[in-house]
Structure formats: C-alpha cells, structure tokens
Design brief:
Mean pLDDT of chain B: 93
CATH class of chain B: Mainly Alpha
Radius of gyration of chain B: 22 Å
Chains: A mainly alpha, B mainly alpha, C mainly alpha
Number of helices of chain B: 7
Number of domains of chain B: 1
CATH class of chain A: Mainly Alpha
Helix content of chain B: over 70%
Shape of chain B: elongated
Oligomer: heterotrimer
Order of helices and strands of chain B: EHHHHHHH
CATH topology of chain B: Four Helix Bundle (Hemerythrin (Met), subunit A)
Strand order of the largest sheet of chain A: 1-2
Strand content of chain A: under 5%
Distance between the termini of chain A: 37 Å
CATH superfamily of chain A: Cytochrome c oxidase-like, subunit I domain
Largest interface: A-B, 60 and 46 residues
C-alpha cells in the first residue's frame, strides 16, 4: 500500500496486511500485536457500550412518567444495575487505556510493542470473558442482579438474583485491568526509545503511567471484597452479615477503597488525551508540562485517600468525616491545575477547530462542571442534603461521560487516521458533536436541579413536581443517542470508504505521526533516537522555545 | 518532519530484559499483597471491635502445629533461594533437587492444614454450624476470617507448588540455565510472598494469648 | 534510573552464598522462637505490637535477602515502599472511622 504523501519510505505493508502467524479471525484473536489488541478492545467495548446505552434509553423512557411507564419496578432495578456494571467495568475503566493505551503507548515512546505482549492478549480474553459472564447473568434463572453496581451488603447477600455471576464477572475484569496496568508500568520503565527521558514523554504516557499504578494497587481490594461477598453467599461465612456480627459499613469502606481510585483510573487517561490533543490544534507547546505531568501523579495519589466521601451519611465517626472531606477538597487542586494549564495553552494559540478539538472543548467545560459539583458533594453540609439523589447521578455523569466519554470521542477522532489509515468525513462528525454535546447537557444538567430539589436516585417512582425535568432529560437522551449513532456510523463507514490518510494529517509532533497510517507491523523501521520534548511547535512561535 | 526525532539507530537484536521481567513480577506480587491486605484490614477492624472474643476463639488453635507450619514455610523459602544460587553455579541437578524439596515442604504444610481444619470441623467449628452460631459474634467473625485467610493462603500454596513444578521441568529441559534463570527468580519471588503472608497470619491467629 | 535501552550485555548477576542464606534462615527461626515464647507472657496490649514487629523484621529479612531486594536496583525498593505505604494508608484511614467518635 504505497501512499505518495507518506513521510516514511513505504517499504513494508501496514500491520493489517503484514504476514501473521495465524489466518482469518485467529490472526486477530490470537494476535499479540498491541495494535490488533487495541482494535479488539475497541470492537468489543463498542458492543458493550451500546448495550448499556440502550439500557439507559429504556431507563429514561420509564422515567417519563411517575409510576409504571414501560417496565415493572424489579426490572427497572436490574436496568440500572446492569447499566452501571457494563458502563463502569466494561466501558469506562478499560476504555481509553485498553484501546488507545494499547494502540498508542508503544508508538508514543518509540517501542515495538508492550513489554509483555502475551499478557496483553490475556488481558483482552479476560475482558471478553468477564463481559460475557456479566451478560449471561441476565438470562440465567433468577434474573440479573438488582443490587445496583455497588453490591451493597446485606442486600447483596440476601437477594436471590444472579449476584454470583456478576461478582465473578467483576473479579475477572479486575484481573484484566491489573494485568494491563502491570504491563504499562513495565513498558514505560523499560522500553522508552533512547533519549526519551521521563520529561520528554508525551503527557498521555504520564497519565497512563499514573493510571497503571492505581490499577495495580487498588484493584486487588475490590477483588477480595467481591470474593468475600461470594463466599458469604455461598458459605454463610459471616464477615459482612450483621446477624453474625458483620459490619456493612466495613464493606462500604472496602468497596470504595477501590471504587474511588477507579474513577481516577477512568478520568486520568482522558485528561491525558486532552493534553495530547490541545497542543496540536493550538499549534503551541503545552503550557506547564511538568505541572501537568506531576498533577497526574498527584491525582492518583491523593485520589486514593478520599474514598469515604461516598459514605458521609452512613454513620461514620466525625473524625473520619472531617478528614475525608478535607482530602476530597485537596484532590481538586491538581485537577484544576490541569484545566488552567490547558486554557493557557489555548490562549493566543493558532486554533484549528478540527473535530478532535471540538470534543476536547466540550470535555473541558463538562469536566469542570463535574469537578465543581464534586466539590459541592465533598462539603459535608451539602452532602447530607443531596447524597443518593439525582445530584450525585448528575455529578458522576458529568465527569465520567462528559469528561472521560468525550475525551474518548476526541481520542477516537484524533487517532482514527493513524489506526485505520483513513480520514473520516468532517461534516457528519461535527453534527454528531453538536448533537452529543447538546443532548448530553440537556439530559444531565436537570439532574442537578432535580437532585437538589430532592429526587432520589434509583427510584422508579416519583412525585409529580419532578416530571417536567424528567421529560426534558429524556428528550435530551434522544438527542444524545442520535448524535452517538451518527458518530458511530460516520466512523464505521470511514473505516472502509474514508479518504486515505497521510502519516501526519493533523501536524502532530509525537512519535506516532512519524510512521505510516496505519503503522507497519513492528511500528518503526529503526528505533528512533529522541532529542527533544513533545509538542515542539517553536516554528510557530515568534520567539523560539528553548530546547527541553 | 520536526517530530521529536533527530536520528535513528539500527534495530537492536531482540534481547532479554531480566530487569523488566522482575519489575512485572514484583508488580504482580503487590497485587497479591494488597489482596491479602484487604483481609488484614477486615481482621484489624473486627479484632479492634471484639478483642476479648478473638482471644477466646484463638484458644481453639494449636500453637504447636502453627509453629511447625511456620518453620516448614521458612525452610521452604531457604530451599528455593538456594536453588537460585545453585543454578547460578551451573549445578543443574542440585537446583532441581532444591526446588523439589521446596514443593515437598509445601505439601507437608498442606497436610498439616488439612488435619487442622478436619479437627475443627469435627468440633463443629465451621461456617453456619449450630455450635458456631451459638457463640458470640466476635468468635464467629474470628473463625470466618480464619477459614477465609488460611484458605486463600492455602490456595496460593497450591498455586505456588504448581509454579515450582513448572520450574523443575524448565530446569530439566534447560530453559532455565546458568545464563538465563529469571523464570526461577520469578517463581521464587512468588513463593517468598506466600511465606511472608504466613509470617503475618501466624501471630495474628495463633499467638493471641 | 533505569536506562530505556540496555545497549550493553547483562552483567554477571549477584549470588547469595549458601552460607548467608542459611544464616538468614537461622535468624528467622530464632525470631519465630522469640515470638512464640513472648506470647506466653501476659503483656496485654503489647502482644500485638511485639508480634507484628517481629513479623515485620522476619519479612524484611525474607524480602531483602531471599527475594534479593537488597541487591537490586534502588527503584525496586521504592516500588515496595509505595505498595506498603498504600496498604498502610488504607488501613489507617479506615481506622479513623472505627477508633474515633
């Protein structure tokens, strides 16, 4: 496949057409090539994502009216449980690291693959297994779990629904996450190209590094906690059962010790993507590189200390409440530092309003709203009023979806030409961005208002005064889904029919743009020697940057 | 152009990176450490809440067997560490023997455990037994933790034995040899962690008097 | 600290002699004996502290010598410290809920 505009002498085929050990579908599902594995994750995640989106649409349909609209209360409980499990464990946590981390990390650091390629493949198989197990639980007798994705005891011990398959699915998925984290830490330590010092690494790599450590250190806690619930259900061990002296609040501590750092697993790579995209489309080097790099580490660190802010109303000691509230406020600081540095990067830049930047801009605003409402939730006095209301639901959708989700959309448009060797059509992409942004905010902003007015979360029924907000939100969900469908169709069509892409259509400065689109099987003909930091747009500056 | 690159060097021969392999193994050990760590947190909280009942329940455990098992595991750590020294010296047979000895010691540990658990079952001290449910809550929690923690540990002993068995085969085949033995090091690391977990389990369950 | 690309051949790795290994093992046995003996005395609240201290010393011996940590690159010790610190933080912060009003 010779491309005249390619910057690299086209001597070898791209990785899709390079010879492989296996043939047909096996060349994909048995491949240890990080690029193929990234695409495998992309395809399987897309399937899980749209399943969970469908559940969300159904939930919003049900909430159009108080009382029953389309399903019974028990069914609604299983809907939000599954929606949460799938979105969190099968989409957002693996999300950016599994797709773009896998595909891009070796390219960004000038390596041929990750350190443990076979372990990488195992990670994907575990992901697939866990996902299928979660979906199978829907159809087994007993019906899908109705505990909420948080599996709180004692209900999760008592309910007769299929909690066990869900627990094991989450356990297996945790393993997948751990192995990916382990792989990335080792890869970043040992496989950077000569000359790529820590402070010449792209910021996306920094974010993957911080995330990987959280994956390794926090995930085992959820592993043991879910295992304990499973043992409790199976053997009646008594560790969490109040009848035998067990403490349900202890369960919550253990659950959130993982699940709070998990949200940083979700957001950090998204923040890294933003830092990656902004310089390219502002034609400026990133403002405050070291601040952003260290803030990723700081968020990972401090974010591991705040978990009990999910438990302010369960009866903890005053000391604990005070300390966790204080720490929660602290963790906003490195996040804010990132936002300030991003804005400074854009300021007086030469802005190119390409599609990746559009998603990033939405992301920054939405992430800020989510972060700010997080601070509100961290304040004890406000928290007791809005906890377990739609306010919380609004908050986490703004950070996880408005933040990470949109960053993922930005990433997919940014790296699309590199991954598929094709360019997507710009107009449908812009339309999808408009619809998704409008739909997202129309759906979730009313949640803050409703929550503040007292609408409880996970409730099937509600008082009439909330209905106008619910209707507004549901219409918003339709606009959002329309945008998502247009985005998906536009990209899927472009895979086959898009215009062939050059090696560097956006004018990026990081290493992935020095190889062909798509890259060759071994990424680089020769391992590059790095002499500068990333994002050197000094030719656009009036006064050149000093060498890093 | 103008990317980060100025020049390129010819591709290196793909060479082994033992340090990287060891990093990966240590990271995996951290996950095991924190997996058990969660259980230690549960233990700490419940012991803090029910100190007297924990002490009472601990009387059911046989300190002699526990001590014997501790010595067995410590010795097994010695043998596997020595197997690395011997492979470094190129003494293939000795290395295999030492790993095999490690596996035997692990087996002895498991046999002891089996008798311990059987004895407790015969006393009616198992989850959901009428005798246990009659006891105060602190004691029920103690035994629940006892079975989960020593049970999970025993599972890891079994896994370790399987890993070590593979090591014996690798040494026999020459996959592990004097110049390339990072696999044995990795296997040994796993085994030592299993030992360390027991080093903490032992006083927390057996030495409460 | 680690160089991204080892362009030199692997150095000869460090060997721990059988003698040193046995010495450590004897130390571990001795510490086991001490901790068992101490548990026989009525020292009340100090039981847990002494037991955990001795267990920690044993673990340090196993980690540093048997697991070779002492002879590895310093980065490994940093990693281990991070992991242990993480666990310590989880435990401590949880206890803020249980040890105070």
């Amino acid at each position: 496949m010779v491309k005249a505009e390619s910057l690299v002498a086209p001597v070898e085929p791209d990785f899709y057409h390079a010879p492989t050990k296996h043939r047909g579908i096996l060349a994909w599902i048995l491949s240890t090539d990080h690029k193929r594995i990234g695409i495998l994750y992309l395809i399987t995640m897309l399937f899980f994502f749209f399943t969970a989106v469908a559940l969300g649409v159904l939930m919003r349909l049900e909430m159009l009216t108080p009382g029953k609209t389309i399903v019974e209360p028990q069914t609604y409980n299983t809907f939000f449980t599954l929606h949460g499990i799938i979105m969190i464990f099968l989409f957002i946590i693996p999300g950016i690291p599994a797709v773009f981390g896998n595909f891009m990390l070796p390219l960004l650091i000038g390596a041929k693959d990750v350190f443990f390629p076979r372990l990488n493949l195992l990670s994907w198989w575990l992901f697939l297994t866990g996902g299928l197990l979660a979906l199978v639980s829907v159809f087994l007798p007993g019906g899908p779990a109705d505990t909420g994705w948080t599996f709180y005891v004692p209900y999760s011990i008592r309910t007769s629904t299929n909690v066990m398959p869900a627990l094991f699915a989450a356990f297996i998925l945790g393993f997948s996450s751990i192995l990916t984290g382990l792989n990335f830490v080792t890869t970043i330590h040992r496989m950077r190209a000569p000359g790529m010092t820590w402070f010449r690494m792209p910021l996306f790599v920094w974010s993957l590094y911080a995330t990987a450590w959280v994956q390794v250190l926090a995930t085992p806690i959820i592993g043991i906690t879910l295992l304990l619930v499973a043992l409790e259900r199976f053997f009646g061990i008594g560790i969490f059962d109040p009848a035998m002296g067990g403490d349900p609040v202890l369960y919550q501590h253990l659950f959130w010790i993982y699940s709070h750092p998990a949200v940083y697993i979700m957001i950090l790579p998204g923040l890294g993507v933003v830092s990656e995209i902004l310089p390219v489309f502002a034609r400026r080097t990133i403002f405050g590189y070291k601040f952003i790099a260290f803030s990723s580490v700081a968020i990972a660190l401090v974010g591991s200390l705040v978990w009990a802010h999910h438990m302010f109303t369960v009866g903890m000691s005053n000391t604990a409440m005070f300390i966790f509230s204080f720490l929660t406020f602290l963790v906003s600081i490195p996040s804010a530092i990132k936002v300030f540095n991003w804005i400074a990067t854009l300021y007086k830049g030469s802005i190119a309003l390409e599609v990746p930047l559009l998603f990033v801009l939405s992301m920054i605003v939405q992430f800020s709203i989510g972060g700010f409402t997080g601070l509100m939730l961290g304040a004890l006095a406000i928290n007791i009023h809005v906890t377990d209301t739609y306010f919380v639901v609004g908050h986490f959708h703004y950070v996880m979806f408005g933040g990470t989700g949109f960053a993922l959309f930005g990433a997919i448009h940014y790296w699309f030409p590199k991954i598929f060797g094709r360019m997507f059509a710009k107009k449908p992409a812009v339309i999808s961005w408009i619809l998704v942004t409008i739909g997202f905010n129309a759906l979730y902003f009313p949640f803050f208002v409703m929550g503040y007015m007292g609408m409880p979360r996970r409730y099937y029924d509600y008082l009439p005064q909330f209905q106008p907000y619910h209707i507004f939100a549901t219409v918003g969900s339709w606009i959002l889904v329309a945008g998502l469908l247009i985005m998906a169709i536009n990209l899927i069509v472009a895979v086959r029919r898009g215009a062939p892409a050059t090696a560097n259509p956006w004018g990026g400065k990081t290493l992935e743009w020095t190889v062909s689109s798509p890259p060759p099987a071994e990424n680089f003909h020769e391992i590059p020697v790095v002499t500068k930091g990333p994002y050197d747009y000094s030719e656009y500056e009036e006064t050149p940057l000093e060498a890093t | 152009m103008n990317a980060q690159v100025q020049a390129a060097v010819p591709v290196h021969e793909h060479h082994r990176d033992d340090v990287g392999t060891k990093i990966g193994m240590w990271l995996f050990l951290f996950t095991e450490l924190i997996l058990f760590g969660g259980l230690f947190i549960v233990y700490a909280v419940y012991r803090f809440k029910h100190p007297a009942e924990f002490q009472l329940a601990a009387k059911e455990l046989d300190t002699f067997v526990g001590t014997a098992n501790t010595i067995i595991l410590l010795t097994s750590s010695l043998t596997v560490a020595m197997s690395i020294t011997s492979i470094q010296e190129g003494r293939k047979r000795l290395s295999m023997l030492l790993v095999a000895l490690t596996i035997l010691l692990a087996l002895a540990f498991l046999v002891n455990k089996y008798f311990e658990w059987s004895h407790k079952f015969s006393l009616g001290l198992y989850p959901q037994s009428p005798e246990l449910l009659n006891k105060p809550q602190g004691e029920i929690l103690y035994f629940g933790l006892y079975y989960v923690m020593t049970g999970l540990h025993a599972l890891h002993v079994i896994i370790g034995m399987i890993v070590l068995a593979f090591m014996v085969v690798f040494i026999a085949r020459g996959t592990i040899n004097q110049r390339s033995f990072v696999k044995l090091e990795a296997g040994g690391l796993y085994w030592h962690l299993v030992d360390i977990i027991w080093i903490f389990l032992f006083p927390l369950f057996y030495l409460l008097h | 600290m680690s160089k991204p690309h080892d362009s030199h051949t692997e150095e000869k790795s460090h060997t721990v002699s059988y003698g040193n290994l046995v010495l450590i093992w004897l130390g571990l046995l001795a510490l086991t004996g001490i901790t068992v003996a101490l548990s026989g005395f009525s020292i009340g609240r100090w039981v847990i502290i002494t037991a955990l201290t001795i267990a920690s010393v044993k673990s340090l011996l196993v980690m540093n010598v048997f697991m070779h940590l002492r002879f590895e690159d310093r980065m490994f010790r940093v990693f281990v410290s991070v992991a242990l610190l993480t666990l310590a933080i989880f435990l401590t912060l949880t206890f803020f809920d249980y040890a105070f009003y």
